[in-house]
Write a structure and sequence with these properties.
The structure is a homodimer. Chain A is α/β, with parallel strands linked by helices. Helices cover 48% and strands 17% of the residues of chain A. An eight-stranded mixed beta sheet of chain A has the order 14-24-23-16-17-18-19-15. In chain A, α14 packs across α36 and α25 packs across α26. The two termini of chain A are 42 Å apart.
């Protein structure tokens, strides 16, 4: 016959799948000799078998439970639900991964009219015994038999009203006995039968309820949302009760082996004497700090310290524990790896390496790179948040916390010393404003909207898609939850939670500890993948260098054009009808460009800088308002109607698939020639200052080797002419972005003409899937909900599709040019899973926003360690 | 020393690359014993060497030319440019492929003041001799030394004016001598030296001019336009002159071995007695039909017949020949494969197979599939075109000829019995009108615009992109070349040439000969690839079946929706906000859909029918005018503002990459469920009539296997329910379109869930390249001109990119499901090169518009034969 039940000493921590996390840890603690109240675990196998038996406890399982209860009676010397020394048990669910939503806990199971009296004597407190009994009936009725909880509350309230008292604590033993009677009546009315006094009946019913709760809708939704798959069910832990409320030498508490907020190596927790577990959480009595136990019960404290040490050594991680002291005897009720802040995680990992508890590699794997982002941004202080008034919630688009005056445009931001830019949605024209804003709040747009992407790039806090706000642009105000906020009013936004608050809120400062530096040095030691940044301005560069960026992987030249002074020349260029008009406009841009490049090369001090030649989303540059059109017509000395006609002819049905990237470079060759000249001229000037400079010129949106060779030839000609004219040379590279599926498929041909490839996975994802980021919002959420997509492919790189194309491209490119430099510069370059994938498929570097450099480094190191 | 010159008996027809086409054929004819005037060929190697010598005739080549002239003198018994019996030669260029633009011919080279007298005696016609001399000076001056031709004409005209005569024929010998003198003076004035009387000098200069002309701009442009690559230069043929103008037993002519218009097996051509080649073409005298030679010179005629037979047997193809009779002796001057009409091509190929001259396989390869299209459409008669007034030219978007009343909308077309739809551009709303129009004329849009694609699908004549026309929609008229055409005026359009004429023009009828049927039977015998059609209506089906379509590869359901009665329900469906509203609208569509499917299944009589579930280009369906919006608001009982708001929310930035295809099927499951039900209900009804039916349901735009399995499950459920309800079953297939790069990359996973794949190469091309058909117009032409694209990838499948993805998909799919059925249903399915590629990569079928079925069949057979 198959074994479904394991006594605690029959299991161990490796048996999570079968015993659940809780059961495996109880077994483990038992086996390493820690004081754990006896008990057994009904396995997850039993849970799935339960569903084969029409959701009934079948005869064999019942028999096995009975055998184990008997074993437990022998071990404890108590009798289950009878006599002077009754065995009471707790029943707890526990799957292989922690999962809210299922039935949780029933305590004091085994209580009935007889054992409540024995308990009363055991703990020498009649009131407490009856209170336990009352709670047991309520808990059992509620969680096991689904009697609505509020009906119990009504009875309780009624008694209090009758007695004219306010708090539970004022209830007398007699009151409690009365409540128990009334609860039992309620139970009969609701269920149609008497409350079970037979303990075995109570137990079997509780086990059945736990198993059933595995498939209640809350649990199912939780598993779907958290993508928990391949788990066969929950286990049930049946454990003999110990009592922390048996007088002054009894107590109960929770503790961590280290400080979960800071990581400091100190026991951290709290406890209550003469209390049960519930009381610690309930907040009726104020628990004491764990250190005080040293004075009140020094031996117990010593024992506990020893146990902590044993557990940490055993689990090699900080532990989160529950314990009970019953009449001076210490019991461990639970242990598990403790949750912690990012700061604590780093400090603990570094300490544990230095204590010899774990290796550097293990330490690296301990840190969730995503959480590191917290450390790099300001956050609202806990204190500050306590009194803050929440006025809206949107998407947590770019982490950090900011407070400032509400501004609807750039003018306002310039005047306000600190401003929050509030827009329906942003467009590239808002770049200047975004740059000076403290934070950005948008009404429309998702996690990959313009506002979100740009804000992350700037390391600026952003809440996007905050649709409950409605803006009245004329009145310069917005309305949310019945409150009207006017321009100049102060709000605070939290880009890590998506919350918007009224008024100013205190913030915590950023501090990167010595441990953090040590950790990053290990990361740098272990990783193979280089990490560059996407940076368009000297300011970005400075930030990225601070975080250890090893170069620029993507310097977008079109962003440089959005500043007020330059955008008009760009508009002229786009709207030009003749090569001559165009040349005029381009000539105006050249000095700006050269200056931009000079500043960037200077600050990058010889680190490689990949400049992408312009890939303007034409429609974003075009003038929109009448006013703008008029201004352009004046600048160009042509009629307004003429400008309008040209604008109309530039309109594209699918701008994403339009006349852009290298296609523009080919039809308007003056453009790329000017940019190449600006890059090389600037580089030569920087070189003349004795600063090393290594420019890499990148052609965007190449789909055919012939596009690249056509442009390469022209650009080389321009550069050769400069070298000749100045009598000075310079090493430079000329490569291409791979962002069109055809480029992947023909990567061998393209590689012949390219010194490097950089995968532009933003566009590559859009085009490979055949949906644009702007439009996919309408179905992508539903796709994720329906399980068609595991994750949003714009956030985490789609390894099966886009990744497969990348692998194909890499293979083809390397057959032609073994040492071709390969990188990635899409948003994925800063997403940990994607970075690890890039490491695995053999890229040389990833490039991400400056604020994600450290995240990418950690992910790269984790990839290297796992290999 | 390297040999650069080949005497005619040293070459043969395989030496085209070295001797050029003309030289190789002259050598071949010489070697098989045909009477060819002696001569030699200066090779293409010499041409490329010429460019290594600074475009000069270098010493060794000069020496070699001299040697060969001596050899020719010995062979002919004449002396070059001297004495009583002077050797005169023609100098002709001739590259490996025929190529206009280069210097063509200089005749009578070797004439000077001395030899003109000898010639005069030889031909016994002083006037003719001096006329030849005059022509030689002009020809030499013009083509060899670039003296502008008009300057010679001015002299000629002046002499005629002085003599008060009108035609050249009236010029006397003395006049001609005068002209020769004046021509020589002109030559001195222009060139600064005397006209060369030394024949070797003449010859070397002529050879130099031929070689130089290889790189004149006209020749370069011609090579670019016709994609002629990898040819090293032109050869020069130097051949001793024979004279057709030596009296009544001399003559000259051109002939074909068969009738090039009809293919009839009969010598076809014309000749002139006592004339030189030029005279036949010049049109001054009327040439006689070749048959009359039988009476005038029966022996010569017999000899010619024999030569024709030899040449056809030798070249295994119909020949186009030039000949000269000099004093009763017959000479062949040239032979080459003759150009012919499509009709002749078929008849000749079939006849030649029956004559045992060529194999069926060779016959199949002889036909250019593209030209077969001519045979399937009406054309304007030659007679009719002679008097037609051309009023505009656009793109030849869909072949055929049509005449009718100008109509700007559907209303007008309904009233006019025969109407030509004239629109700025068409949209799906025009489908009804396009369907009843005789032909379609649009102002905007290219070869793949909506009008062009739909018209080709309908087999309807269309001229698109006719930008010189400007429409005034209010006045209901258009203007072109200064003419105003009003609604109701009659015009004629030629979709094979892109020309637009005023008034009605007579048309030729379509007739497919018995030979054609025989030819197609061979095609069917040899091909492996099946050919289906893209057809949405019973009318399409009937056409396709007539041309031998073996099923429907693509039945687009969205086109079915454009009829007036249905489009409103579709609009309701799209604009619906709730599942309920949507269900209502969809229920209205169901009966229409079932009827459509019923009719198609019925007419297809068991041939497979692939129905693509709806992939609506949402924006094309949406109401646009105020009126339409109002009507929709009434239909749906909602406010106009409400409709407008919903329309706004449906607006997409990139409709091509938007919420369409199976994405709609997933978010609005009711839609595909209704369609599946309509298909199966209709199929069961057809089956009940005793007609076989094999529906294949196709899901569009799948990019992930999970999309397909999600939909497959739902559709199967619907179908199973029908089967259960009706107690009747039916075989059906459920497959997917492969039109997104990700589908190719993950084809193995997708194949597990699909019974078949159909490559939708229209979208696959757009998405693989990352540019949309609508927007690529702005640069694709320039790409082709600049040589970045060899061909427009929307016309001819891009084998290196899109084709490579297809191969990848096929390989992946077949590893999982060896016998999965694979087809293509993009526009490429009817383009010969693409069809051959589809055969090569192992597809099972291609699907194309009904009118292209035969083209596809021939291309498929050619592919099979070449393998």
């Amino acid at each position: 016959m198959k074994k479904f039940i394991y006594f605690f000493n029959e299991g161990n921590k490796t048996m999570r799948d079968l015993l659940g996390g809780k059961g495996a840890n109880l077994a483990e603690m038992t086996n390493i000799g820690l004081p754990v109240p006896g008990g057994f675990t009904i396995s997850t196998d039993a849970c799935s078998e339960f569903y084969n038996h029409d959701q009934k406890i079948w005869e064999e399982l019942k028999e096995e439970i009975l055998q184990n209860i008997k074993k437990l009676e022998v071990e404890t010397g108590k009798t289950f639900g009878y006599g002077e020394n009754p065995l009471l048990v707790s029943v707890r669910s526990g799957a292989a991964v922690s999962m809210p939503g299922m039935m949780d806990t029933v305590l004091n199971l085994g209580l009935n009219d007889e054992t409540v009296e024995s308990l009363s004597k055991m703990i020498n407190n009649e009131r407490a015994a009856w209170d336990s009994y009352r709670r047991f009936i309520q808990m059992f009725g509620d969680v096991v038999r689904e009697v609505p909880k509020y009906k119990f509350d009504i009875i309780m309230d009624k008694v209090k009203e009758e007695k004219n008292i306010k708090t539970d604590l004022e209830l007398t033993t007699e009151d409690l006995k009365d409540i128990v009677r009334r609860y039992k009546d309620l139970y009969i009315r609701e269920i149609g039968e008497e409350f079970p006094s037979e303990p075995l009946e109570q137990l079997l019913d509780a086990v059945r309820a736990v198993f059933s709760s595995w498939n209640n809708s809350r649990a199912i939704i939780y598993r779907e949302l958290n993508e928990i798959k391949g788990i066969k069910g929950t286990a049930v832990n049946v454990q003999s009760m110990v009592f922390g409320n048996m007088g002054d030498t009894s107590g109960t508490g929770v503790a961590f082996t280290r400080n979960p907020a800071t990581g400091t190596k100190e026991i951290f927790g709290e406890y209550l004497m003469n209390a049960q577990g519930e009381d610690v959480v309930a907040g009726i009595r104020t628990p004491k700090k764990i250190e005080t136990l040293k004075e009140t019960m020094p031996e117990i404290y010593e024992e506990f310290l020893k146990i902590c040490k044993i557990l940490e050594k055993h689990y090699k991680d900080m532990q989160d524990m529950e314990f009970t002291i019953e009449r001076g005897k210490f019991y461990m009720l639970q242990t598990r790896n403790g949750k912690r802040t990012s700061k604590a995680a780093i400090n603990i990992a570094v300490d544990m390496v230095e204590e010899g508890l774990i290796t550097k590699e293990e330490a690296i794997l301990r840190i969730d790179p995503k959480n590191v982002e917290q450390l790099l941004h300001k956050n609202f202080s806990e204190e500050g948040l306590k009194n803050a008034k929440l006025i809206a919630e949107g998407l947590a688009a770019s982490p950090g916390a900011a407070s400032g005056k509400v501004c609807f445009d750039c003018e306002c931001l310039k005047k306000a010393k600190k401003g929050i830019l509030v827009r329906i949605e942003t467009s590239p024209e808002d770049i200047e404003g975004m740059n000076i804003a403290e934070g950005i709040l948008t009404i429309r747009g998702g996690m990959t909207s313009h506002a979100a992407v740009v804000a992350r790039g700037m390391g600026k806090c952003c809440v996007s898609g905050c649709s409950e706000i409605s803006i009245d642009e004329e009145k310069k105000e917005f309305e949310t939850r019945g409150i009207v906020i006017k321009e100049g009013d102060i709000i605070s936004i939290d880009g890590s939670s998506g919350k918007v608050y009224l008024g100013d809120i205190e913030k915590t400062e950023i501090e990167l500890s010595g441990a953090f530096e040590k950790f990053i040095s290990w990361v740098d030691e272990k990783r193979r993948l280089q990490v560059r940044m996407n940076a368009d301005t000297p300011k970005d560069c400075a930030t990225g260098i601070k975080f250890g960026a090893e170069g620029i992987g993507l310097c977008r030249t079109e962003h440089m054009f959005f500043a007020e002074e330059k955008i008009w020349s760009v508009r002229e260029m786009i709207v030009s009808n003749t090569a001559n008009e165009r040349k005029n406009a381009i000539d105006k841009i050249y000095p700006f460009q050269k200056k931009d490049f000079f500043e960037i090369f200077e600050i990058m001090e010889g680190r490689p800088v990949t400049v992408r030649l312009i890939d303007p989303p034409l429609h974003e540059f075009l003038p929109k308002t009448e006013e703008e059109i008029k201004k352009l017509s004046e600048l160009m000395h042509i009629e307004v109607e003429d400008v309008e006609e040209r604008l109309e002819s530039l309109r594209e049905v699918n701008p994403m698939l339009g006349h852009r990237g290298c296609r523009l470079g080919i039809t308007y060759p003056e453009l790329y020639e000017m940019q190449a000249k600006a890059i090389i001229d600037a580089a030569l000037e920087v070189k003349a200052l004795g600063i090393k400079v290594t420019p890499e010129i990148m052609i965007p949106l190449v789909g055919s080797d012939k596009e690249l060779s056509y442009l390469r030839e022209r650009i080389e000609k321009v550069i050769d002419a400069i070298f000749e004219e100045k009598g000075e040379k310079l090493d430079y590279k000329l490569g291409t972005m791979i962002e069109v599926p055809r480029a992947c498929v023909t990567a061998d041909e393209i590689a012949k003409k390219a010194d490097f490839f950089s995968f532009g996975t933003n566009d590559l994802t859009q085009i490979t899937f055949g949906f644009s980021r702007d439009d996919a919002g309408k179905f992508i959420k539903e796709y994720v909900e329906k399980g068609i997509f595991e994750k949003d492919p714009f956030v985490t790189l789609d390894q099966e599709g886009v990744g497969e194309l990348m692998k194909l491209a890499i293979k083809k490119a390397r057959t032609v040019k073994e040492n071709i430099k390969l990188g990635i510069c899409g948003e994925h370059g800063g997403e940990p899973k994607s970075v690890e994938f890039c490491d695995k498929i053999g890229l040389d570097y990833v490039s991400c926003s400056p604020y994600r450099v450290l995240i990418a480094k950690i992910a790269a190191a984790q990839g290297a360690v796992r290999k």
